[in-house]
Design a protein that fits this description.
This protein is of the alpha/beta class. Helix content is about 50%, strand content about 15%. An eight-stranded parallel beta barrel has the order 1-2-3-4-5-6-7-8, surrounded by six helices. Helix 5 (about 130-135) crosses helix 6. The relative contact order is 0.13.
Length: about 290
């Protein structure tokens, strides 16, 4: 797999005004996309409309919009109010808190939105059946809370089903001590949610292996390197020290520097592997 694109993720609860400000900074810093989580107190689609007004190239995406809370027609109507071409818009869909019929709910939602718009569609997926649906029916799965090796395995599975699938992965990230503490609290909270707890147990991984920086690392660059070859797009879900504009600006600056360092390391590692392979081939032919 080629090196992943890197995007920025934020919570819809920040509100359209702050998210628009973050979007402009993310575009200038070279991020591929801005992803906004949709929550009851944070309308991701309204935030994307605000972000579209201040950006020109940035892909505008939602995290999982729950189809048990927002109907496909409501989502399509909101998308139509985003002043950006369909090629810049990507909508994440999921089953939300639905307890039965999750696959049918998501399949129907994908098809209904497809009938009206040509925007990108990804599906939030934990289990194998939803991941398969995401690859076959939508443009690919939106994964989260995975270490690099598991992400790479799930990405290969999606591409086996649909070679053109785009596999996106949320990775929680913090760049300072206060942000790391907030991130640890969020990770511990997610580890208690039944669906996520069951998924961690099924995969045999701990939540601490799914965030950046990884335990013992100084900064996020080293832990980011293996993710670059695991999926098509890494979404750094920002966990700053607080939710002020300055805190997000500091996160974006630090993350941009870490991305450059991670790409440099990945290129050096690839060059070393290529050199070792050539040496082995020459020795075998000697």
């Amino acid at each position: 797999m080629t090196s992943a694109t890197i995007s920025l993720g934020v919570a819809g609860s920040l509100g359209p005004a702050l998210i628009a400000r973050i979007a402009g900074s993310a575009e200038r810093a070279g991020f591929h996309a801005l992803w906004v989580n949709d929550t009851p107190d944070g309308d991701a689609l309204a935030a994307l409309a605000a972000a579209a007004a201040v950006t020109e190239r940035l892909v505008l995406a939602t995290g999982v919009v729950p189809l048990d809370r927002r109907a496909p027609s409501e989502i399509s109507d909101a998308v139509s109010r985003i002043d950006a071409p369909d090629s810049r818009i990507r909508i994440g869909l999921g089953s939300g808190a639905a307890r039965t019929g999750q696959l049918a709910l998501v399949r129907d939602g994908v098809r209904r939105i497809r009938d009206r718009q040509a925007v990108g569609l990804v599906v939030g997926a934990l289990g194998p059946r939803m991941r398969a649906l995401a690859a076959r029916e939508a443009d690919g799965p939106l994964l989260s809370w995975l270490p690099p090796a598991v992400a790479a395995e799930q990405s290969r599975d999606a591409h086996d089903l649909a070679p053109a699938a785009r596999v996106c992965l949320y990775v929680r990230a913090a760049v300072d001590a206060a942000g790391i503490e907030r991130m640890r609290e969020e990770a511990a909270r997610y580890a208690t949610y039944p669906n996520y707890a069951a998924n961690f147990a099924r995969l045999g991984v701990g939540v601490e292996s799914t965030v950046l920086p990884a335990p013992g690392d100084d900064g996020i660059a080293a832990g980011l390197v293996p993710y670059l070859g695991a999926v098509d797009e890494v979404v750094l879900r920002a966990i700053p020290a607080d939710d002020s504009p300055d805190a997000y600006a500091r996160f974006i600056d630090a993350a941009a520097a870490a991305i450059t360092a991670a790409r440099d390391t990945a290129e050096q590692d690839a060059a070393a592997r290529d050199a070792a392979a050539r040496d082995a081939a020459e020795q075998a032919g000697a």
